[in-house]
Write a structure and sequence with these properties.
Elements (H helix, E strand, L loop, with lengths): L5 E4 L17 H14 L3 E4 L1 E2 L5 E2 L2 H14 L4 E4 L9 H5 L9 E5 L3 E2 L5 E2 L3 H13 L3 E6 L2 H12 L8 E6 L7 H8 L7 E6 L4 H11 L2 E4 L6 E3 L2 E2 L3 H14 L7 H8 L6
Parallel strand pairs: 1-2, 1-12, 2-5, 6-9, 9-10, 10-11, 11-12
Antiparallel strand pairs: 3-4, 7-8, 13-14
Helix pairs in contact: 1-2, 1-8, 7-8
The structure holds (5S)-5-amino-3-OXO-hexanoic acid (KMH) and zinc ion.
Length: about 270
């Protein structure tokens, strides 16, 4: 089995300090949370940014400031900006972080889905193709976000049409639309092309069990405030690092070593940094 890549989704666009006071908004807070996850063993930081008042933004300048601050504290970590942003943003807004020099990875959401209440996260076929094409042009590896099986099929179809480069890296997000069960995860894993890599993210109380199943299956894992703000039932997590630490402990118990950022680059086919 490959070493385990841990992605920390440190901020998200939906959770707030009212939900958990440790949710980062400012540049300093984003850097603090990235460092806590990195020190604990995360090799990828999945990044959403906020204005100081907590409003989600895809502003390129704000991303640049946050990336610079993260780099100061975590020089070799892989930073993976979101191109999903928040529900309701335009494609042009969402694409801004892909313009940042040196971006190695970014998310590519492969379908439209319900996002709670009246919220619909829209990703039309043309949006997916356009984002995929731009990532190829800019040398960015997509982290294909999959919230349902049809999104795997879209990714395969668009890869055949030349909009996504193979081998692909998938992130299965379980517990938003598709159920967070071992059955669904196994079905997803068996649906992707040979040679692909994959990560699983269980939302809310599903974070730890889905993570443990993914580690045992030889996949990779995502944790962090974007997906889950609790450490245990009714107990808020103090930091993203605390959530990463638990995955590291589970990995060690299951005989799986944790990848450094450069080891993660090798597994994902990214250029290794000096
Ligand atoms: N905040 C969601 C609407 C991504 O990062 O690409 C989209 C999301 C997925 O979080
Ligand atoms: Zn995200």
């Amino acid at each position: 089995m490959d070493k385990l890549i841990i992605t920390a989704a440190i901020s998200g666009a939906e959770v707030t300090k009212e939900n958990n006071p440790a949710v980062p908004y400012t540049v300093e807070e984003i850097a603090r949370e990235a460092e806590s996850a990195y020190q604990a063993g995360a090799s990828i930081i999945h990044l959403h940014v906020r204005k100081d008042d907590g409003t989600p933004t895809q502003d390129k300048q704000r991303f640049q400031e946050c990336i610079d601050a993260i780099r100061q504290r975590c020089p070799d970590v892989i930073i993976q900006p979101s191109t999903g942003g928040a529900v309701g943003m335009t494609d042009l807004e969402r694409l801004q972080p892909t313009e940042i020099e040196g971006t190695e990875m970014a998310t590519l959401d492969c379908g439209t889905l319900n996002f709670g209440g009246d919220e619909i996260f829209i990703n039309s076929e043309n949006t997916i193709k356009n984002f995929g094409k731009i990532m190829i042009e800019r040398g960015i590896k997509p982290e294909i976000e999959v919230f349902d099986k049809g999104m795997v099929d879209y990714a395969i179809r668009f890869a055949k049409q030349g909009f996504i480069k193979e081998p692909m890296h998938f992130d299965f997000v379980l517990g938003v639309q598709m159920a967070a069960t071992a059955r669904d995860l196994v079905y997803m894993v068996h649906s992707i092309p040979p040679g692909s890599t994959w990560t699983a993210a269980g939302v809310g109380r599903h974070e730890t069990p889905i993570g443990a199943i993914a580690i045992a299956m030889g996949g990779h894992v995502r944790v962090g405030f974007e997906d889950n703000i609790y450490y245990s039932r009714g107990v808020l997590a103090q930091s993203n690092g605390q959530l990463v630490e638990r995955m590291v402990r589970i990995a060690h118990e299951l005989g799986r070593e944790v990848a450094t950022p450069n080891e993660a680059r090798k597994i994902l086919g990214l250029e290794v940094k000096e």
